[in-house]
Structure formats: structure tokens, C-alpha cells
């Protein structure tokens, strides 16, 4: 039986198309996150990752038609780990700040919420002015720690590797106040673990420090990947997926208004 050259060519193209399609379908990305910043990302006792960041990441990967796996990393080393190619992107509530933009590239924001101060319920502190001479706890290498250094220079800043550790210290009276994202602090003070404390006040956003919101970080120069994430964020905002995830965690839109 003789097979015509035309048939062979068509068959070869079909096989190539099949392999090309399989290659596209098998595109994989490794996502780095902290796993210690509820309600945005948290490593549970059973080893699973939960939180707004994680659900958004999964939705973006689905929209981009890529298979994603997650890796946890300590916050203060998460950018060096990205640069060392331990993962392809950071989805961990990382604020898009000028300082970080010198080290990594970002997608557009996927949420934007302001910082806030929390204090013990019986605290004599009634305003930000009362923080002079007081000890403020914050997570190290965060925009919130930088905010306290700039705007509360007469207070003593004490930094911690994770948010859980500053929460423990304010619960035990070792610091007078703490600074973090308002959503993180609000959900904490509403929980049994945060029963010690209350929100003192939200703080004005300082764009130089707080940036343009939380974005997805990629290695410097990998703008094509950052742009893909940006398009996927817009897509899940448009198709309602973002709103469903938002409603799972919050009773307001954490996106923070549309970009101009």
C-alpha cells in the first residue's frame, strides 16, 4: 500500500499540531507566597494554602490556562528567592512600591487597602499623636514598617519576621500598638485571637511607601509575564470571578476603585 506525500504531509502537520497543543496545555508556573498573612494567605495545619491571595492566584492561572503550583517562603527573603528562580511570580499581598520596582517588575494591582493602627482595648492611646514614645510592632521588610519609620519617627519601631509574632507581643503587653493592612487587623481584632485589641484608626495612604496597591511580582525584565497577569486580573474582574472570591472573604470591594 502506497501513501501519498500529501497524506504524509497532512499527517505530520496534525502530529505537530497535537504536540504544540500539548505543550501549550502543559505550561507551568510556580507561585511564591508567604503563608503567614491571613486572611490573604495562610498555611494551614494540614499543609494546604488558603486565603484571598491563593484563590486569586488559582483564578488567574485558570484564566491564563497554565498549571500553577505554590511554594511558601519567609517574607524577608521572598524577593531574593524569586530572583534565584525558586518560583516564577510572587502572589503574597506585595505592595507595588518604587523601592521594590527597582528589584522586580509588577502586574497592575489586584487589590488596594490602606494601613491602620491597632491598640489594646484598655489602651490610653486615643490618637496617632499619642504614639510618641510608644513601641509600635510591625512585620519586617513591609511597607507598614516603612510607614511607621517615616510618619511616626518619635515612636520606637519593633519589627517581627511574621505578623503572628507582633500579634502575640501586643496580646502580652510587650508593644503598645501595631501597624498593618486594615483588613488584616480588622479581621484579627474580630477573632478570638485578637480579642485583646481594637482598631485605633485607619491611616492615609502614602503612595511613596504604600505604592499603588498589591501586585504580582516577577523577575526584572519579565514584563511579558507581568502583562499576562494584568490581562488576567482584568478578565476575572470582568467575568465576575473576582467578585465571587472577594465576597468569600470581605463585605466590601478590596480592589480599591478602578485604575484611571
CATH architecture of the largest domain: 3-Layer(aba) Sandwich
What name goes with the CATH superfamily of the largest domain?
A: Periplasmic binding protein-like II
Task: Quote the distance from N terminus to C terminus.
Answer: 67 Å
Shape: globular
Uncertain runs with pLDDT below 50, 5 residues or more? none
Structural class: alpha/beta
CATH class of the largest domain: Alpha Beta
DSSP strand content: 15-25%
Instruction: Give the helix proportion (percent range).
Output: 25-40%
| Number of continuous helical runs | 10
Q: Kindly identify the CATH topology of the largest domain.
A: D-Maltodextrin-Binding Protein, domain 2
* Number of DSSP E strands: 13
User: Largest sheet at a glance?
Assistant: 5 strands, mixed
Look at the structure and give the mean pLDDT. 92
What quaternary form is this?
single chain
Number of domains: 2
Q: Give the C-alpha Rg.
A: 22 Å
Order of helices and strands: HEEEEHEHEHEEEHEHEHEHEHH
Strands side by side in the biggest sheet: 5-1-6-13-7
Protein described:
The protein is α/β, with parallel strands linked by helices and 260 residues long. It has 2 domains: 25-112 and 212-249, Periplasmic binding protein-like II (D-Maltodextrin-Binding Protein, domain 2); 115-209, Periplasmic binding protein-like II (D-Maltodextrin-Binding Protein, domain 2). It has 10 helices and 13 strands. A hairpin with a 3-residue loop joins strand 2 and strand 3. Helix 2 packs across helix 9 (223-238) and helix 2 (52-64) runs antiparallel to helix 10. The longest helix has 21 residues, at 5-25. The mean pLDDT is 92.
Amino acid at each position: 500500500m502506497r501513501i501519498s506525500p500529501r497524506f504524509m504531509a497532512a499527517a505530520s502537520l496534525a502530529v505537530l499540531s497535537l504536540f504544540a497543543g500539548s505543550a501549550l496545555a502543559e505550561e507551568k508556573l510556580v507561585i511564591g507566597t508567604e503563608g503567614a498573612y491571613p486572611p490573604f494567605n495562610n498555611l494551614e495545619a494540614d499543609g494546604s494554602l488558603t486565603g484571598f491571595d491563593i484563590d486569586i492566584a488559582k483564578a488567574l492561572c485558570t484564566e491564563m490556562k497554565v498549571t500553577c503550583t505554590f511554594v511558601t517562603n519567609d517574607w524577608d527573603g521572598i524577593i531574593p528567592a524569586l530572583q534565584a528562580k525558586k518560583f516564577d511570580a510572587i502572589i503574597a499581598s506585595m505592595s507595588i512600591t518604587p523601592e521594590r520596582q527597582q528589584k522586580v517588575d509588577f502586574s497592575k494591582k489586584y487589590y488596594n487597602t490602606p494601613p491602620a493602627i491597632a491598640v489594646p482595648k484598655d489602651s490610653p492611646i486615643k490618637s496617632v499623636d499619642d504614639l510618641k514614645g510608644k513601641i509600635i510592632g510591625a512585620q519586617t521588610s513591609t511597607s507598614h514598617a516603612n510607614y511607621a519609620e517615616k510618619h511616626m519617627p518619635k515612636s520606637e519601631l519593633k519589627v517581627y519576621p511574621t505578623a503572628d509574632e507582633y500579634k502575640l507581643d501586643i496580646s502580652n503587653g510587650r508593644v503598645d500598638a501595631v501597624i498593618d493592612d486594615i483588613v488584616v487587623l480588622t479581621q484579627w481584632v474580630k477573632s478570638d485571637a485578637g480579642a485583646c485589641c481594637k482598631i485605633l484608626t485607619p491611616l492615609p495612604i502614602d503612595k511613596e511607601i504604600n505604592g499603588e496597591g498589591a501586585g504580582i511580582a516577577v523577575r526584572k525584565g519579565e514584563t511579558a509575564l507581568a502583562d499576562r497577569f494584568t490581562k488576567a486580573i482584568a478578565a476575572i474582574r470582568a467575568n465576575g470571578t473576582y467578585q465571587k472570591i472577594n465576597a468569600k472573604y470581605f463585605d466590601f470591594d478590596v480592589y480599591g476603585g478602578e485604575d484611571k
